[in-house]
């Protein structure tokens, strides 16, 4: 076996960690502790099971289920064979799952028992050759745990090149059909190098993951990082703010990745006031800018936010704002990682000067190989110079720090003026009555689009459009002030915590 090529395999690195530190705790899941040696043995046995079930190099292995150690075992087992892992969003409908599974050409599909009722009606429409159920035996399903435990451990990991695909991760598909981003073994490894060089990493860290693993943030901001450094992963089945607060104290958690909404919900619990958060070194935050009020709230508890910017297609880190810049560069997404470049371009793909707003473009070894079965979409996203066009609007300041303004598709054009919702949202979040807010553009005969604020209010609070405009007037140009205001119980979000603005537009345009 070519040693240099085998080391690119994500499974090889994890299994080597298991061999080096078999007695260290790898995962804590619902009171069950799994040591690295035990984890490595499960991965090897599951790899043998998959191989004996017909999985070959390049085949796709799907997983549908909430956060569980089996997710990670399945991923590494597939990669040990040179196969490609396809994590599936457990909140999708059967029809949505049919499209993704067949688009990816999944050979073997593993399903959490709780999700079997969702996918069972669609089995005859799927291309899969094998179906495994996670726990109970059922007609037409093979029992994963029983067959895995009976298998012999795989001896040798398949050699791969760093440019071989390790994961196909489907984008959230907030508009149109989802696309499968092909992330290579090298993409994942280089992302983790960038992360470790940006904020370090110790095998004494305790990482808490409550974000969904099928999303790039949940999987590859901190989770896979923990397997590389040999630290402990506290894995939660799903996000529950009270459980997170309890587990931080119980296990001495040092780091956690989440969307701003998750940290907001944690701060709104009665248990927050008395929670012992002294073990936390910092929280890693992505998916959206952290409101200043939330930064201040956690700073009062001695906790810094490390804010990152990235996408599924960038595996995900594209910039990182470390704590020493949190105050002087407040609102920035930070600097590019050591092994990633950033530039801002206009509509003609020409670089713009500092301070000028345009599309954020990224280049580096962490950029995806392309979209699965979508060469046209790949060519549109990655230009001939290798720059990935993010679809996000931003600018670089004189010091090279990146500021995210908004998504190109979310920009509101009102009266011929460009309005960036994130800027307006940052101001509206400061209102004491607002718990969460989103700004969208709705059709308007006079202005083309009306700046529209949609907010969930704190319990017992009320707010009118006139009061909101009066509050924001000193901080925003007049054309940026909301012309419409809607109060809702909660904002619609995808599993990554991003607000689904297209849902709000559909609901409020009727």
Task: Describe the protein.
With 510 residues, the chain is of the alpha/beta class. The protein folds into three domains: 9-160, Rossmann fold (3-Layer(aba) Sandwich); 186-341 and 395-407, ANL, N-terminal domain (Rossmann fold, 3-Layer(aba) Sandwich), CATH 3.40.50; 411-508, ANL, C-terminal domain (GMP Synthetase, Chain A, domain 3). Helix content is 30%, strand content 25%. The protein contains 17 helices and 25 strands. The strands form six sheets. An eight-stranded mixed beta sheet has the order 2-1-11-10-12-13-14-15, sandwiched between helices. Strands 4-3-5-6-7 form a five-stranded parallel beta sheet, with helices on both faces. It has a four-stranded antiparallel beta sheet with strand order 16-17-19-20. A hairpin with a 3-residue loop joins strand 23 (434-444) and strand 24 (448-457). Helix 2 (10-20) crosses helix 4, helix 3 (36-52) crosses helix 4 (69-80) and helix 11 (241-251) crosses helix 12. The longest helix has 17 residues, at 36-52. It starts with a helix and ends with a helix. The model has no long low-confidence stretch (mean pLDDT 91).
């Amino acid at each position: 076996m070519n040693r240099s090529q085998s080391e690119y395999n994500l499974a090889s690195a994890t299994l080597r960690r298991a061999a080096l530190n078999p007695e260290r705790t790898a995962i804590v899941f619902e009171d069950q502790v799994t040591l690295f040696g035990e984890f490595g043995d499960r991965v090897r046995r599951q790899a043998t099971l998959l191989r004996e079930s017909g999985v070959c190099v390049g085949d796709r292995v799907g997983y549908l289920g909430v956060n569980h150690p089996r997710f990670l075992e399945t991923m590494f087992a597939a990669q040990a064979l040179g196969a490609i892992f396809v994590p599936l969003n457990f909140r999708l409908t059967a029809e949505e799952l049919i499209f993704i599974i067949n688009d990816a050409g999944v050979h073997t599909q593993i399903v959490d028992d709780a999700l079997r009722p969702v996918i069972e009606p669609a089995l005859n429409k799927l291309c899969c050759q094998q179906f495994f159920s996670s726990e109970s035996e059922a007609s037409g399903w093979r029992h994963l745990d029983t067959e895995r435990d009976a298998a012999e451990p795989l001896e040798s990991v398949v050699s791969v090149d760093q440019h071989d695909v390790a994961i196909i991760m489907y984008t959230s598909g907030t508009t149109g059909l989802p696309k499968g981003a092909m992330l290579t073994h090298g993409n994942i490894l280089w992302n983790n190098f960038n992360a470790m060089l940006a904020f370090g990493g110790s095998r004494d860290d305790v990482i808490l993951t409550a974000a969904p693993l099928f999303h790039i943030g949940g999987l590859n901001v901190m989770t896979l990082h923990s397997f590389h450094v040999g630290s402990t992963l506290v894995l939660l089945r799903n996000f529950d703010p009270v459980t997170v607060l309890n587990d931080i104290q119980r296990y001495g958690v040092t780091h956690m990745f989440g969307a701003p909404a998750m940290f907001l919900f944690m701060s709104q619990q009665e248990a927050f006031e008395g929670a012992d958060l002294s073990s936390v070194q910092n929280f890693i935050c992505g998916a959206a800018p952290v409101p200043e009020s939330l930064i201040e709230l956690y700073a009062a508890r001695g906790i810094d936010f490390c804010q990152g910017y990235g996408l599924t297609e960038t595996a995900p880190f594209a910039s990182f704002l470390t704590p020493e810049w949190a105050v002087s560069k407040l609102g920035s997404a930070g600097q590019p990682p050591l092994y990633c470049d950033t530039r801002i371009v206009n509509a003609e793909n020409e670089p713009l000067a500092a301070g000028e707003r345009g599309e954020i473009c990224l280049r580096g070894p962490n950029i995806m190989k392309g979209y699965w079965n979508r060469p046209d979409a790949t060519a549109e996203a990655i230009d001939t110079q290798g720059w990935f066009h993010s679809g996000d609007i931003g600018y670089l300041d004189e010091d090279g720090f990146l500021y995210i303004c908004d998504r190109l598709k979310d920009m509101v054009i009102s009266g011929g003026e460009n309005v960036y919702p994130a800027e307006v949202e940052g101001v509206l979040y400061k209102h004491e009555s607002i718990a969460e807010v989103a700004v969208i553009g709705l059709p308007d005969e006079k202005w083309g689009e009306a700046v529209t604020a949609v907010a969930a209010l704190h319990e017992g609070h009320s707010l009118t459009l006139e009061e909101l405009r009066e509050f924001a007037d000193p901080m925003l140009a007049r054309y940026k002030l909301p012309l419409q205001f809607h109060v809702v119980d909660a904002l619609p979000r995808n599993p990554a915590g991003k607000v689904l603005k297209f849902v709000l537009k559909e609901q409020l345009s009727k």
